[in-house]
Design goal:
two-stranded antiparallel sheet, 5 helices, 74% helix, 8% strand
């Protein structure tokens, strides 16, 4: 029995599902601001989350057009290590420049968005198909 992994084509997943994390972040902002949560933390966390997702798409495109596997791996590695680093620096900067509540709000917003993104990436990952 052999197993093959067939990638899920990007076109097969509707755009709102692929970016559900970003949609939830944007949809939450008015409610969070109306509830009196720290505006600096919410806005900075949301802006950085959306920016790092856009950067991820750019990195994926760049890696796909790389001339060889080594270059593609290096580009992907920079993205995997750099994007969380940028998020962490943003949360730290917001907490230091604003109040601690601002940093906490940014951290919680990014954590929830990351959780949604992680769940979607697990659910939408390529499925193993058994070829008998």
């Amino acid at each position: 029995m052999s197993h093959t992994t067939a990638p899920v084509p990007a076109d097969a997943v509707p755009l709102p599902i692929r970016y559900l994390d970003c949609l939830l972040v944007v949809a939450f902002l008015p409610f969070g601001l109306a509830a009196g949560l720290p505006a600096l933390g919410l806005l900075a966390g949301a802006a950085m989350w959306i920016a790092q997702r856009a950067l991820g798409q750019l990195i994926d495109t760049k890696a796909a057009s790389a001339p060889d596997a080594r270059s593609a791996t290096a580009i992907q590695f920079m993205g995997v290590m750099g994007r969380p680093f940028l998020l962490a620096l943003t949360i730290l900067a917001v907490g230091l420049l604003g109040e601690k509540r601002d940093g906490l709000a940014a951290a919680i917003l990014v954590l929830v968005a990351f959780t949604v993104h992680l769940i979607l990436s697990i659910v939408l990952r390529p499925q193993r198909k058994s070829s008998t």
